Amino acid sequence: MSLSQWLAGKKKMSLNSPIKHTFSTQNKNLWIKCNQCNFLMYYKVLNENFKVCPKCSYHFQASSQDRIFYIFDRDSWHSFDVYLSSTDPLGFADRKLYSARLIDMKARTCLSDAVQTGIASINSISVACGIMDFRFMGGSMGSVVGEKLTRLIEKATKLQLPLIILCASGGARMQEGMLSLMQMAKISSALYKHSEASLPYFTILTSPTTGGVTASFAMLGDLIIAEPNALIAFAGRRVIEQTIKEDLPDNFQTSEYLFKHGFIDLIISRAHLRSQLSKLLYLYS
């Protein structure tokens, strides 16, 4: 083997080296660029700032586990119905079997479905809380999400607890058809009984909150709170424009637009949410 052939072989080996690939992957995960202002930050800076850009206050997507950590007193979270999961009642299939999608999502997120429910405390005030997770099939509302939230609301009513639901959803889950749409009425009915018991219910709308979730429990709160610049809608922007044959404002379907027009009550940054919820719960208690 000639020297030139040996050098060519070494170069090819170094280019295909798994060590180099691992380094580049790690480097990519260490540095994060803001989607709004392109500010480049170390991942620890973002995590320590509640996943909010320190330069422009853009709110990155947060998981349900992140929100538990950000909002509640340490070690106060007690989950319900952790292993409740869908059984693919319709045998739905598109490019992939729905049952296979569920298995994949469970492996990726370590969740049984798109919501976590439980009881926790905020500055020692006990609350029942449901936290939707967009990572699990876009936070879509299927029969399990509806069942878990209904059980949570019924438990909150029985224990005379205030209720908080954090919404992050693309709407009803099409793979479950009418069974997913039924959850809108089911959850709303449980909320009515909670309201009749004179117990407070807060909703926190994060980006995105859309479809059947917006059309039901997301907009039924005694106080409706939203994160800054959150996408909040029922139908998509293009659908509305094509229906009414008009162009919509640039900030249409944002939390700021909805606040200006009286659809939501407060816009609160994630960094201040815990302290503001504590004050609100104290006022309502």
TrEMBL record:
- Lineage, uppermost ranks: Eukaryota, Rhodophyta, Florideophyceae, Rhodymeniophycidae, Ceramiales
Q: What does this protein do?
A: Component of the acetyl coenzyme A carboxylase (ACC) complex. Biotin carboxylase (BC) catalyzes the carboxylation of biotin on its carrier protein (BCCP) and then the CO(2) group is transferred by the transcarboxylase to acetyl-CoA to form malonyl-CoA.
Q: Recite the UniProt cofactor note for this protein.
A: Binds 1 zinc ion per subunit.
Any one Gene Ontology biological process term? Answer: malonyl-CoA biosynthetic process
Q: Give the EC number.
A: 2.1.3.15
Q: What class of enzyme is it?
A: transferase
Residues involved in Zn(2+) binding: 34, 37, 53, 56
Signal sequence coordinates:
none
Q: Which domain of life is it from?
A: Eukaryota
Name the InterPro entries on file: AcCoA_carboxyl_beta, Acetyl_CoA_COase_Trfase_b_su, ClpP/crotonase-like_dom_sf, COA_CT_N, Znf-ACC
PANTHER family, alphabetically?
ACETYL-COENZYME A CARBOXYLASE CARBOXYL TRANSFERASE SUBUNIT BETA, CHLOROPLASTIC
Name the reaction it catalyses.
N(6)-carboxybiotinyl-L-lysyl-[protein] + acetyl-CoA = N(6)-biotinyl-L-lysyl-[protein] + malonyl-CoA
Please state which protein family the record places this protein in.
Belongs to the AccD/PCCB family.
Q: What are the record's GO terms for cellular component?
A: acetyl-CoA carboxylase complex; chloroplast stroma
- Establish whether keyword DNA repair is in the entry: no
Keyword Zinc-finger among UniProt keywords:
yes
Q: What is its main location?
A: cytoplasm
What does the UniProt entry say about where the protein is found?
Answer: Cytoplasm; Plastid, Chloroplast stroma
Q: What is this protein called?
A: Acetyl-coenzyme A carboxylase carboxyl transferase subunit beta, chloroplastic
